[in-house]
Every structure is written in C-alpha cells, then in structure tokens.
Design goal:
The chain is an all-beta fold. Helix content is 0%, strand content 21%. The strands form 2 sheets. Strands 1-2 form a two-stranded antiparallel ribbon. It has a two-stranded antiparallel ribbon with strand order 3-4.
Length: 48
C-alpha cells in the first residue's frame, strides 16, 4: 500500500524555448541560451 502512489507519478514535462527552440523545464532558465521570460539571465559560455 505504501508504494501504490508510485505508478501515478509522471515525468516532468519539457517545454520549447521561444528563443532557441531547445527543450527546457518550465519556470527555469533555459540551459542552452540562458533566457528566462524574454530576458537573458545567465550568460552561457560555449566550449568549442
């Protein structure tokens, strides 16, 4: 009975970033471009 709720749990849904179209979790900064709600919050360094 303790584990009956585990089958109900779902994986977190991913949204598409409006800036770079990469998948990201909602209500968080996009890890690929650093934008959140239309503003750049984090500067992303590219290691190329």
């Amino acid at each position: 009975m303790r584990r009956a709720y585990n089958s109900v749990l779902k994986l977190p849904q991913l949204n598409q970033c409006p800036q770079c179209a990469a998948p990201y979790h909602s209500h968080r900064v996009c890890p690929s471009c650093g934008f959140y709600r239309g503003r750049q919050v984090v500067t992303i360094k590219s290691y190329a």
